[in-house]
Design brief:
Largest sheet: 9 strands, mixed
CATH superfamily of the largest domain: Zn peptidases
GO biological process, one term: proteolysis
CATH architecture of the largest domain: 3-Layer(aba) Sandwich
Structural class: alpha/beta
Strand order of the largest sheet: 1-2-3-14-4-15-21-17-19
EC number: 3.4.11.-
GO cellular component, one term: cytoplasm
Protein name: M18 family aminopeptidase
Strand content: 15-25%
Number of helices: 12
Distance between the termini: 40 Å
Keywords: Aminopeptidase, Hydrolase, Metal-binding, Metalloprotease, Protease, Zinc
Length: about 475
């Protein structure tokens, strides 16, 4: 339709109304191809980084490959220098030094690398019904029934009695054994099926089947348990007491996969929030000679409130910024007060099977680009920082100018629930911050789904943020 044949209302609507469009229709095939290619390495990252420790190890190697070196406290770095700092092997900070003084602030991207899972209790191994099992305590918000009758792998670290440690990763390689939580067959589950969905599987019923063959001896007791202890001692040098000083986690065994006939989606465990961690990471690795120092913090413990010394409710990010500032002779509070942050975390995508919990005018959608979330929290915006109009306006202009396709999002209808991110902990440092991330289907499930286009736009968003000279 030509401009001459359009009605006044049509012209006015084009000029004034907000338009949102599926990027699969809007983007050229070349850009969609770039998104698909980018996500191939992202899938590899997901497979290699199923726990926060493994994520740190993977990130450290990727950083070294791009010329990053371990940060030296007290050293004054020059523009273009690339450093990283690791906090207790569970969180990592990367920085690319900028041309401008730190007094003008830094640009921060903050994502988390922990995900919901099943943790072993301190004394997990027991025998019942001539089977050996592990007791677990779930980590983060999960639907417990989703973790039954599926293959799980065991990951983590065991500190032995002599102070040495052994890392465990069992169930990922071809030929490895796997583990599982058993469930009742439908024919005998009449009483279980009367429970509410939330109580269909209770926390104390998330027990991991780990063996069934007894040790061949008629004089000892709990022979199935004893046989597992024997195998653990032979493979890892462990005794039962070593569980007391272990961090062992159960996660799904399967690898990241393309989803759909058109391969437009990625399904995997742990995409909340490793999808934002990876996209922020790659933007940092590609960042060269920024105006402002670019800082990416990939943190732990977000799924349980960010508490603990590896979560962003601790001071380690603040201490890192302070150390940079001290080396330049700038008050660290001045650096933070002039800094800006993209809190890199996911948002819930509209699911047509479950539309009632979403406000369709304000929810994120698959294939509509990276999501800007002004506030999270619950009900009366409790537990959020609520970004200012000025900062949202700045990010909006930046993304539009740089061709980053983005959408606005909200975490469900008012009173439907809610959630939080690390944004409020960054805001507590007097930093301007807004949430920016990828929309996710089946969030917190063992198999989460995202769009390849949205993943690529998240990478472009963080790249544009680091490159911004304003």
């Amino acid at each position: 339709m030509s401009e001459q044949t359009k009605t006044q209302a049509q012209l006015l609507q084009e000029k004034l109304a907000l338009k949102r469009k599926n990027l699969g229709q809007e983007l050229p095939d070349s850009t969609i191809g770039e998104a698909d290619a980018y996500c191939e390495q992202y899938k590899c990252f997901l497979d290699n980084a199923k726990t926060e420790r493994e994520a740190v190890d993977t990130i450290e190697q990727m950083a070294k490959d791009k010329g990053f070196v371990l940060y030296e406290q007290g050293k004054q770095y020059q523009p273009g220098d690339r450093v990283y700092y690791i906090n207790r092997r569970k969180a990592v900070i990367l920085a690319v030094m900028g041309k401008r003084s730190l007094a003008e602030g830094v640009r921060i991207a903050a994502a988390h690398i922990d995900s919901p899972r099943l943790d072993l209790k301190p004394q997990p191994l027991y025998e019942d019904g001539e089977m050996a099992l592990f007791k677990t305590h779930y980590y983060g918000g999960i639907k417990k029934y989703q973790w039954t009758a599926m293959p799980l792998s065991l990951h983590g670290r065991v500190v032995l009695g002599d102070g040495t440690f052994v890392d465990v990763k069992l169930g990922e390689d071809e030929g490895d054994p796997v583990f599982c939580v058993t469930d009742l067959l439908p024919h005998l589950a009449n009483e279980q099926m009367k429970r509410t969905l939330n109580e269909g599987i209770k926390g104390e019923e998330l027990n991991i089947l780990v063996g069934s063959r007894p040790f061949k001896d008629d004089k000892a007791s709990e022979l199935c348990k004893l046989n597992i202890l024997r195998l653990l001692h032979e493979k890892y040098g462990m005794t039962e007491a070593d569980f007391l000083s272990a961090e062992l986690e159960l996660v799904p065994t399967y690898k990241a996969k393309d989803v759909g006939f058109d391969r437009s989606l990625i399904g995997s465990y742990g995409q909340d929030d490793r999808v934002c961690a990876y996209t922020a990471l790659t933007a940092t690795l590609e960042c060269k000679d920024p105006e402002h120092t670019a800082v990416t913090v990939l943190t732990d413990k977000e799924e349980i409130g960010s508490d603990g010394n590896t979560g962003l409710n601790s001071a380690y990010l603040q201490y890192f910024i302070q150390s940079l500032a001290d080396a330049e002779g700038v008050p660290y509070y001045q650096v933070l007060s002039h800094s800006q942050c993209l809190s890199a975390d996911v948002n819930a995508a509209f699911d047509p099977t479950w539309p009632d919990v979403m406000d369709p005018r304000n929810c994120a959608r698959i294939n509509y680009g990276v999501v800007v979330t002004k506030y999270t929290g619950a009900r009366g915006k409790s537990g959020t920082s609520d970004a200012s109009a000025e900062f949202v306006g700045q990010i909006r202009r930046l993304f539009d100018e740089k061709g980053v396709k983005w959408q606005i999002g909200e975490l469900g209808k008012v009173d439907a629930g809610g959630g939080g991110t690390v944004a409020m902990f960054i805001a507590a440092l007097n930093v301007d911050v807004v949430d920016v991330g990828v929309p996710v289907l089946s969030m917190h499930a063992p198999f989460e789904v995202v769009s390849k286009i949205d993943v690529y736009m998240a990478h472009n968003a963080f790249s544009a943020f680091f490159a911004d000279g304003q």
